[in-house]
Design a protein that fits this description.
Length: about 500
Amino acid sequence: DFDAHHALARRAAAEGAVILQNKDATLPLSADKSVALIGAFAETPRYQGAGSSQVNPTRLDTPLEALQQKLGAGRVAYAVGFDHELAEPNAAMIGEAVSIAKAADVAIIMAGLPPLFEAEGFDRTHLRQPQHIEDLILAVAAANPHCVVVLSNGAPIEMPWAAEVPAILEIYLAGQAGAGAMVDLLYGAVTPSGRLAETFPLALDDCPSQENFASHPRQLVYREGLNVGYRHFTTHDKPVLFPFGHGLSYTQFTYSDAKLLTDWSADGEQVEVAVTLTNSGDCAGAEVVQLYVRDVESTAYRPDRELKAFEKVMLQPGEARELRFTLNKRAFAYFDTELDDWDVEAGEFEILFAASSTDIRQTLTLNLPATSQRNSAPLAETPYVLMSDAQLSALGLKLTKPERIKPYHANSTLADIRTHWLGKRVAAAALDMAGQAMGKARETAVAQKMREEMVMSLRLATVSNMSRGALSGKRFDLLLHALNNRWLRFVLRLLRP
């Protein structure tokens, strides 16, 4: 039943969307207001990823059609705003968007990342949207302050324009029924209940991995240790744009009466806790209650708080419910590398009932007894953001020497040799052959970029193996000698059979 399937997809898309910002109760919108719908994703929605994740939808809704169905075609003005693949600078498109925004009661901007800016097969080099889309948002917001930005993207982005817009709805890659879900959320047919499963940083440089990621093209050392995601930002008090677990609602929730239901059980090594959740707003809605555990004073280096349990609860206005959680040994343990097992240090722990990783509503404190199987106390670990070589060695991790780029060798990639006059020609030939094999004439811009990134990552040895003998044996040796400007060796190899 395609209709039933589509209805389920619409519901799932609504539950996965997140209201990131809603100043002055801009949302939900009133259905009696005229709308300027701006952005190419309104008619060419970014509803799925590129590459192997692509599927053929049974039916694809578009935001433009969904909004027209909701309000009537005559009350929805539309401007394309940007090219849905390239988003190249275009002053005329921004001008048209500003014009319809001024004439409407509300402006809805369909923004995010075009597929050319995120897909499998290549890395993002920054967290920004295309500059043209950011300029579009600022221009429309200046023309009509009563605006909403709807984001279609597969991962976090920076938002230097966030202070200029009252409302932001993150729908991610919402699937074939995402447009209907978007309208449901914008107009209050559904109360938003989605929560972020990742942190949106203020800037890419705030992420510890950025400092050492790809610092050497042949080696990536994992130095962040436990400082991943919200664990880093909360431990080191790093301000963020939107924290892990964040998500707004059209109602309000009150947390109260946190309590310890059972003491720590030596036999079962667990504890039971509870908190009362009340819908103190005017409409039904769902809240995601999150439990974080903090080891108040730990010998081992640990994040300031760690998510150990959560539950999503739907409540009617005025309804209250007691939620119970059981936390076992693993909720309080850390992995002791010398013991080679999970271990709990004796002492004080806090259980944090929260609406996000930074929005703590209730706190419980308990003291756990010593249960360690260690014969001696562990040495105190030095706090870190990125682990030094000495800290890695202390964990028994030995750094291997990274492979050199030059002189070029069999493990060099086509990307490595593109700076050489001959390597540039070899790489171009490989790209052309791959394009012919993959149907270059029918490629989209994103498919072309994926193909280029894939081909450029090939090792020369792999290219040789795929050349069907055209670049093997003697020819391969000659290529390496030429790339390394070893012309005497080149001539000697040329004269040998």
